[in-house]
Amino acid sequence: MLTLIFRKAVQSDLSHLIALLADDEIGQTREVVSDPVDGAYIQAFRAIGDDPNQLLVTVLHDETIIGCMQLSYIPGLSRSGMWRGQIESVRIAAGYRDQGIGRRMIEWAISNFKERGCGLVQLTSDKTRLDALRFYASLGFNPTHEGYKLSL
Amino acid sequence: MLTLIFRKAVQSDLSHLIALLADDEIGQTREVVSDPVDGAYIQAFRAIGDDPNQLLVTVLHDETIIGCMQLSYIPGLSRSGMWRGQIESVRIAAGYRDQGIGRRMIEWAISNFKERGCGLVQLTSDKTRLDALRFYASLGFNPTHEGYKLSL
Q1: Domain boundaries, chain B
Q2: Tell me, what's the pLDDT at A12?
Q3: CB spacing of A30 vs B124 below 8 angstroms
Q4: A50, A116, A141, A150: best mutation site toward chain B, by most B Cβ within 10 Å?
Q5: Could you report the per-residue pLDDT of B4-27, keeping only the tens digit for each?
Q6: How confident is the model over A123-132, as pLDDT tens digits?
Q7: Is A62 helix (H, G, I), strand (E, B) or coil?
Q8: What number does CATH give the domain B5-138?
Q9: Partner B contacted by A148 (CB < 8 A)
Q10: Nearest-CA distance B147 → chain A (Å)
Q11: Which residues lie across from A8 on neighbouring strands?
Q12: Which terminal residue of chain A has fewer beta carbons within 10 Å of its beta carbon, N or C?
């Protein structure tokens, strides 16, 4: 099994993280890969870092960035004041897919959410990502909700 | 058309907001309605108030609390560093349903998200809430995603 390191993303990871987001059927149409990094990403990175209820996670193997995901800790009144953990923007580098790394990432996220006192984990996945849908179902996630988006 | 006031929730709203969350087919099984309010709700209310990226909204008509919703502003790297607006826990008091109030609430939320610079609004709705599914579709929301939950 590959040795993985999970840590909070740092700004020098940014170009690698954007490349990960863009190296994806859906993501490639909506990310801007440039050197230097587009300023909008730097602003977004800082906004994530400034928010104690967000955690951008970089996943490394042998000092190479091979994955990322964003965890959000969402306080709420419903379900007796339960905190929700939300997972967004999960990506794994092309050469590292289908090796169980996604499963280890989600397990890491679940463990992190438990430490933070969350009672529920939620995420949405694009209905065209058939592999992802099977993957989340295999991890015990229930597709109980319809996930809506509206572009502004 | 009913006059509605939208404002940030204050702690004295809390018992009314919990009653709204509980007055619902699904919510009634998972909320604790008590006087005084269960401490878990007070903690959750404070956690929401402490987070500048959360806004719990109380909706009033004639000084009566008739609705609530929670807005989350989520920074992220993907889609070129776009902020997302997320809507959670939308509730309307039983006597005020089917009068277009939900539509005005979501329109208010969308306008608020635009002011905050969000490029996308997202929400999930339980697949058993057929009226809600039709409602969000009628507002232009696209059900592009599968919404997963995992209880911890």
Answers
A1: 5-138
A2: 96
A3: no
A4: A150
A5: 999 999 999 999 999 999 988 777
A6: 999 999 999 9
A7: coil
A8: 3.40.630.30
A9: yes
A10: 4
A11: A57
A12: N
